């Protein structure tokens, strides 16, 4: 055996491998007229509208259509968008008033029509159907015919109204850029300022959350008003920047806050900061919007970003492809890279663990922990086993009694014994020496790939030749066999034992009876790369085509759902034996392109019925005179009303 004294134990490592989210980024190349997005909105038909510095754009999920000054817009710089209860779109143009759009005709309103200012920053329709326009000279009220301007009496700075919303009791809340947070009860306006507990008097957006609290983003963080007092969230709580541009709540209650340095997500307890290194096209986030299907949309200075699925997070870097993922008893999640090196997860990134230069040059095939907390690293490049006790590393090879220096698997049993599976049999150790376990005479192949202890204390092993072994206390004996190598073994809470094979799917042992789960039963492949149970008893199988979710019911029947590229599992190809289920509800899969973290509880099931929108009608695939066959043509949709076509 060889000893390596670790004089300096460093957990900082090198620069981390950052989380990558499943963003779909849209730019000019995808059809946007201009990349600087100011505002995002969804209309009643489901269209996404984007206000940018190059015009007004509508997105149908596939194509972009843009209106500019060439289409009679007074200005191409769109700052605010909303749709009233009659279906008319309203949007503001920089220093050019507001414009209504019925789908065909633009109608413009300015100071000449009664607006308090042509610089309109927000548009809101209240519960009574009244439109409110926040401007740089106060707020204007529009009943469909005339404008009425509300006297704020808040000083010149207090007249810059950036945002308007309404609470359940009918009060209007006004976000003033310089004048604080205003409350209008229909008669009087009262402003709350920093002296009342507001984080900052410069309010950029205001909304009401599910708790009926008033939430305001400011240039000094988020303020939440419960009706009596303010509670504030700033950089000290985890925000990327104290200066916020916008915010929105998603369907799970997470708060997304936009700044010039990225976006911050908070579940009320923890904060996650997302920037360019996590998949955004740009760090300057100008707007946040959550649509009816709970998709997150972000407007940036370099285009539009959509985050549809938030359950998958990827950690990818050239050369990073873990072959083993393991969590220690003290909570450290570590990964052994197939190209060499041990990495650890710090809560945000994976960084290289400078545990030992020699060990980091090895190809680690398996990791286990002994009763004393020592970590055992088995190598597949014929360097035996390395054991780290927290201070020093000891290397064990064939000289110490190992059957082979090539290690396939390691476990620690309930008695504290370490079991080491190799291509030349199995060794057992209870201290610093190893005893090779005798194998029954009817066993012709000593290449043991996998080893596990079941709930009753039985030791099971899987062989390269497809044989399943069980240790009887003295010898390793053949239990059964199949035609494919058995690469790992796991047990369910109900006591069934599952065997992962190389190309024959999953074998299930219930008592003495074997059944199989293969492509015929719904798996996306019979080449099983990883097999784990989560805390709920769901079985997960990684393959070279993604992952499979196998849910068992009370009758022990099961259903299978597969996840591939289209479902968010971008890497597709899982690495052999590289999967782990933690106690926080996360699944970790080592892939050919890094590590994918999957949180099933955040998986979004779209319960929204698809919306059918008819844009046009063609006759024999050609345009025709619709008025000839109908009473009239609707001015908004352009579709015929009560159309009747002749037929034979």
Write a concise keyword list for the protein shown above.
5-stranded antiparallel β-sheet; 648 residues; mainly beta; 1 helix; elongated; 46% strand; 61 strands
Describe this structure in words.
The chain is an all-beta fold. Helices cover 1% and strands 46% of the residues. It is built from 1 helix and 61 strands. The chain has a 5-stranded antiparallel beta sheet, with no helix packed on it. The longest helix is centred in the middle third of the chain and has 4 residues, at 357-360. It is elongated, with a radius of gyration of 32 Å. Mean pLDDT is 92; it is low at 4-14.
> How helix-rich are the residues, as a percent range?
under 10%
Biggest sheet details: 5 strands, antiparallel
Number of strands: 61
Strand content: over 45%
Please state the average pLDDT score. 92
Terminal residue distance: 94 Å
Q: Poorly predicted ranges (pLDDT <50, ≥5 residues)?
A: 4-14
Principal-axis shape equals elongated
Individual helix count: 1
For the largest sheet, list the strands in their spatial order. Answer: 1-39-38-37-36
- Provide the gyration radius in Å: 32 Å
Q: Which structural category fits the helices and strands?
A: mainly beta
